[in-house]
Amino acid sequence: MALSDALSNPPASRRVAAAALRTPFRVRTYAAAVYLALSFPLGIAYFVCTVVGLSLGLSLSVLLVGVPILAATLGGVVLVSVGERVLARRLLGADVDAPSWKVTEASGVADRILAVVTDLAVWGALVFVLSKLVVGVAGFTLLTVVLSVGGSLLATPLYYDTPGATVGLILPEPIRRELSLVVPWEQFEVGVSFIVRLTSWEVSTLPGALLMSLLGVGVFLLGLNVLSAAGWLCARWAELTLGTDIPSVADD
Questions:
Q1: 87 located within any domain
Q2: Beta-bridge partner residues of 175
Q3: Which of 148, 221, 225, 227 gets the highest tally of CB atoms within 10 A of its CB?
Q4: How many domains are there within the chain?
């Protein structure tokens, strides 16, 4: 079946609409919002500590002082990945199993260093930790937009008549545009012209405030569905980077 046929199928369309309407009543939606909210401060902390540790460790490795710094940094990344695996399972419902760290199976300093360098689980955890900042910034922005815009629209009936408050679409000056279509016909020109004029719209009555509040419900519904989709993407990313147990090069 083609994609267009699937989308135009009435039962499928109803199922999609029903799922979108059920989103505000699902616990997983708000768990995803909590996960995105936590990602912002955690992402900043992860990024700063990891970048500083790797930079110092690599720059001082020629003096052998940087080796323990690198080891401590990678050890911190592994510990963080353990906590993030728990968060992904509890808040996002991700199917993330703990990988078998190759360093635990190695003996000797040289073998342990080789196991860490060639263990894809360590590199996956490092990629996840560094990408947490991007997830956090995107999640914080999304939450701020949904809560500020949706909340202000939803609460319009509570403050629309407050002295000094202005609610609505306020333009500095009216916008006037003329749309014309002219077709030459022999010695004549036949055309149609429309004038579009946009002016400010201010909410000054309770029906208008209720209309704005209804618009806020739509914004919240759309925003919660976007948050749910973002949580689903974060779950898949955690499964890809934290839960894949791939044999490392040291096993070959």
A1: yes
A2: 198
A3: 227
A4: 1
- Structure tokens given for 188: 């004549």
Residue 104 resides in a domain? yes
Q: Is residue 233 part of a domain?
A: no
**Cross-strand pairs, 185:** 188
What is the distance between the alpha carbons of residues 199 and 166, in angstroms, rounded to a whole number? Answer: 15
Q: Please list the pLDDT of the chain residue by residue as tens digits (252 residues).
A: 444 554 455 577 788 888 888 988 999 999 999 999 999 999 999 999 999 999 998 888 777 788 888 888 888 898 899 899 999 999 999 998 877 765 555 565 555 556 566 667 888 889 999 999 999 999 999 999 999 888 888 888 888 777 777 777 666 777 777 777 777 766 667 767 777 777 767 777 888 888 889 988 999 999 999 999 999 999 999 998 987 554 444 344
Give which of 100, 148, 107, 143 is closest to 124, Cα–Cα: 100
167: number of Cβ within 10 Å? 20
Assess if residue 162 is contained within a domain: no
Global pTM exceeds 0.90: no
Of 168, 151, 164, 171, which Cα lies nearest the Cα of 217? Answer: 151
What's the Cα-to-Cα distance from 192 to each of 69, 112, 123, 149, 182, rounded to whole Å?
75, 79, 64, 39, 6
